[in-house]
Each structure stands twice: as C-alpha cells, then as structure tokens.
Cyclic nucleotide-binding domain-containing protein (Strongyloides stercoralis), 711 residues
Amino acid sequence: MNKETSQEDKMQKRSFASVVYTTIIIKNFVKNIKKETDNDKMSNYHDDLVFNVQPSTPQVITIDNERNNANEVTVKENNEIKETNNQKIVRNISDLKIDIPLQTNKKKLKVFKFFRKLFKLSFYKDLLFETVNRSGDFYYFWTLFVSIACFYNLILMVVFVYDNVFGEVYKIWIYGNIICDLIFIIDIFIQSKISYLEDGTYVKNWKRIVKKYIYSISFVLDILAIVPLDIFLFIKKELTYLRINRLLKCYRFNEYVERTSMRTGYPHAFKIFILITICFILFHWNASVYYIISVLGGTNSEDRNDWAYTDVKNADPLYPTCDVNIDDHIGDCGFNETDREANFTLKREAYVDEMMAYWKDKMYISKYSNFTKEYSLSFYWSSLTLTTCGQQPYPNAWQENILEVMDTIIGVLVFATIVGSVGTLVSTGNRDKAEYQYILDGIKFYMKYRNVEPLFQKRVIQFISYLYNEGGFTDDNKTLDFLPKRLQGQIAVNLHMQTLVGVNLFKDMEPGLLYALVLKLNRVMYAPDDFLCNIGDPAREMFILKRGKLQTVDINGVVLEILEEGATFGETSIIKLHGKYNNDKQKLGLQSIGYSDVYVLKRDDVIKILQDYPKERENLSYKIRKHFENNAEKIEKTDISDLGSTHTIEEQFEIMKQIIEDLDKGITEAYDQFDTSSSAIKKKVTKVEGMYKKSRFKIKEAYKNSLQSKF
C-alpha cells in the first residue's frame, strides 16, 4: 500500500514539474518568434564585417597619439607560434591596424610625404623592382608630369610660326624637348610595371605585365610618340612640326583628368577648368593656322578690311604726354576740330595726317614685339570665328574659305558640346538648390494651409536653411548604398571608432563588436532647444555628438553639464537590465543648445549584435550593472525576464533548462520535506488517537466534571 502511494506521489510531482516546464517553454517561444527570424538574418552577419577578425583570440585595444598627431587604434592579438622542422608557423594572425588620420591639412601632408620619398634611395629601389599600382599616389603624380609634357608640346609646337620667336627661345625649347622626351621614355618603363586585375586579384608577375603592355594599343602609341623625327631640326630649324608625333602621347592627359576628377573635392570647378583649357588649345592652334595662311597670302596690305592678318590692323598704341581735355580745344593738348565738326560731310580720314603732325611731339609710342601683336590679333580672330560670333571680313582665297568652313564645323560641333557640358555643370550645381527650394515651398504651403503659428513656421524655415547650408539634405545611407559593406565600414571606422573606443563602456572590447556597432550608427540632426530625450522617456538609445553642443537637464530644468563634440550620452541604456538595476527610463533630459549633428546607436541593434558575442555581452552587462552601484562584487542570477534580451534561442533554452532544473529540484526538496513532516505528524496523530481510545472514559468524565463545576 505504501509503495502504491509513493508511486502516485512521484507521478503527481513529475506532472507538476512538467506543467511548469511546458508553460515556460510556450511563453518564451511565443515571445521570441520574431527574434528567431532576426537570428536567421544574422547568420551571414560576419560576411559583411569591416575586417576579418577572430573573436576567440584575446585582444587588447590601445590608443596611440604619436604618429603624425593622428589617433591610431591598434588591435594586438596573441599569435600562436609553432615550430616544425626549424620553421616557424604563425597561426591566428589577425593583427589589425586602423589609422584614423586628422583631417587638417591632410592633402598637403600627403603631397609632402610623396615628394619626401623622392629623396630616399628605397623609393627608387622599389620603383625598379616593384610593380606600380594604377590607383596609387606615385602613378597619379607621375601622370601629372606626363600631362605637363603633353601640354608643353601642344602649346610650343606651333608657336614658332610667329616672328621674333627663334633665337634664345629656340634653344630653351630644344632643352625642354629633351626633358619631355626623357619623361616619355621613362613613362614607357613605368607603364610596363603597372599591375592589372585578373579574376579580381592584382597580377604582379613582371613578365605577364610586360607582355600585356606590349600587346596593347598604348605601347604602340608610346613607341610612335618617341620616334626622333625632330632630329632633322639640326638640319633646318624651321621644321618644328616634325614633333607632331609627340601628340600621340596626349591620351595620358585624358587619364590624368579622369583620375583627378575622382580625387578632387571640387569636381565641377575642375571640369570647368578643363573646358577652358580645351578652348585655349583650340584657339591657340587655330590662330597659328590663320597666321600661316595670312603669311602665305602676304601681310603687307594696308587694307583694314582684308581677311588676312596685316600690320595696320594691330598698330602700336599711342599715349599723349600732356593732360587731355576733350572739351578744351584751345589748350596745349587739344586738337581743334570745331570747324570740322560743323561740316558733317567731312570725315576724319581726310585730315588724319594733319592730326598726326599735331600730335607728333605730344605723344609716345608703346612698342610691342611683332610676336605679341601677331599672336594677340590671331588669337582674337580665332576666338571669334570658332565661337561663330561672325563679324569678320570675307575670305578672298580658297585656303581662306577652307579654314572658314572648318572653323564653322568645329565651332558648331565642338563648342556646342562644350556649351552643353557647361550647361550640365551649371544645372548639376543648381540641383541641390532646386531641391531645397522645392522642399521649402512645399513645407511653407503646408504650414500656411494648416495655419501653423508664425513662430513655428520661422523655426522650421531656419532649420531647413541650416540643413541646406550644411549639406544636410544628402542621405548618408543612399549615398553610400552602392559601396560594399567593407568600404562602408572603413568609412564608419574613420569617422566614429575614435569616439567609440574613448567610451569607458567599450574599452577592452573585441574589434569585431566595435566594428559592428559602428555600422549601426544613424545620423540625426536637431534644431536649437530640441530635446533628444526627456526625463522618464524610454532609455533605448546611445547618443554620440559629432558637431554642436548639448546640455543635460534635471527634473527642475537646471543645466548639469555641457556636452561638446565627441561626447556621449546614454551608453548605459543600450542593454536592458532587470530587478533593482532597472534602466528602462531616462534619469536626465538631453537638450540641443544650437544645431547639433548626432549619431544614435539603438538598443535593438546592440541586442542583435551581442547575440554573436556572448562573452562581451556578459562583460558589457557587468559594466552597466556596476555603473549603478558603488561596490558591485555580486551580480544577480539570471531570471526568466532576462530571456528576451540579448541571448540567442539556444542560450535562452539553456537558461530555461537551468531554471526548470532549479525549480524541479526545489519542488522535490519541498515535497520530500512535506513527506517527512507529514509522516511525523501522522505518527503523532496516531499516538494521540491511541491514547484517547484508552482514556476516553476518563477524559469524558473529567470534561463532564469540569462543566458541572462551572455551573
């Protein structure tokens, strides 16, 4: 009988534990259905990390402020070194070094470093034996030198058609030609060392690089460009056009323009500069052709309406040596034309000789060289003709007609393209302003239609104006969306890692965790007097101030602290705590003093990331709990309410299992205690019953006597 009773008790005990176990599982399963979907999305999270790190390896993050006064975060890991057959094999190497340079004078420092390399022997050793990266600084600056040499040939090749250019200028030109030819020859050597991409990786095998270069069109152009046709200049120095093959090298100028457009911070201004340069080159060459045709036809004509260049069209200017008063014809410096002005039929050309005789001793001639006068007038004619402005004398010969027709075609096609490019640049430059005006007009119409108070209307308009002036209309996510996650992460690291590492809460954390947190930062802009959070609001964000000023305010409105650039607020809110360490509400308010640029890190994003870092999660929770107490030597055990926080499904089931085991153990102990105590009580009751049966008559008699004595 006792055995059957004990078995029934055990079945009842197990049934109770099973009910508790099942109830908890169902509760948390329903609670975490959404989190299972999020965890599935997180399975590929590490594929997008900024750097491939091994979180299992102990790491230490240090800050170094010595190198070029730039903050440099260095992650040092312990490498396991194993020796086998006198060879050292390094495992788990993920030494990571992240340079976060200061933005001040960054470009000047970069150029200075490049030119400083030119005076080091190691630079030339690397140049001889190492491949050249097409996107590197060396290749960019070298392309600049080659472009200057190309521009030199474009300008000076045709300049010798004018007078007074030969002589000392010719000798300097010869030396310049030698330097440019040396640059072109060296460029062939450098071109044969440029690595290229194949199957996504750079080819650094010199033989393969040379073979690819030799079979390219660039090699053919480079060889033809250095053919020494100009050697005949030593026979006849007027044959300057023999260097026309050097213009085949001008394709390198296009490469420089393309790379500068990607590097410069002012792409529109640079494009306008290139268009001006192209116009200048076209005017320059066309002016030279015009002057050559004029020389072939003769330049001694005194007819100012002649199509060709003549000396009378561009005479030296005359300046008076006395004070000229055009209203005073009686003074020493005025030629009296009163009588002649009355005669309307008399033209000035009729008495020009008389005027010249009068002014002969009262003026001086500003002498200019023939080259200056020839080039200026030819360039002026070229600019008017190519821009199809017209108003030029009619051509008189077939070669003049051909030039006019060619200039008309070039003017219509080339300059139509140039004008279109300028229009595109102008419209692109005004696109942001047009978008700003569109948004501003829409908001103003909305506020007026909804009868918004004028004070708020003014505040909204001021905020939109600030956004436009500070470039706030650009969406960072859309701007960087086409970049791979790795490059987005590198940009985020450069912007925020220094600030994030400076937070005490994140010191000594794994780099992978820090990089993942940096990627989750969202940019938000606040207007003056805006509250980022009020007292009593849900504490679910961490704020990082990048620009502007913020102030913390207590419940009475008293300002407690002013936060400046780089400061953080609410770092203890990124993980939810329970029990006496509850941090669900904001204890202080955070207000923007002026316009502020703030990056926000949300708790939900941190929770998802911490699921992949269990050790760092516990460390972070410990630091936050420690923040709320003075001496935090003991940390409360995990309870059921912790299951929906930062743990994964597997970890939550482990916690549930531990809780159920503890609960089952407690129930078993309580049942055993109850069983033991109930047995003892039963024995006592049985003993009392036996004693009562034996003495019941005496007890009844005694009870009766006691009642009678009372009455």
Remarks:
- Residues 306 and 681 are 139 Å apart (CA to CA).
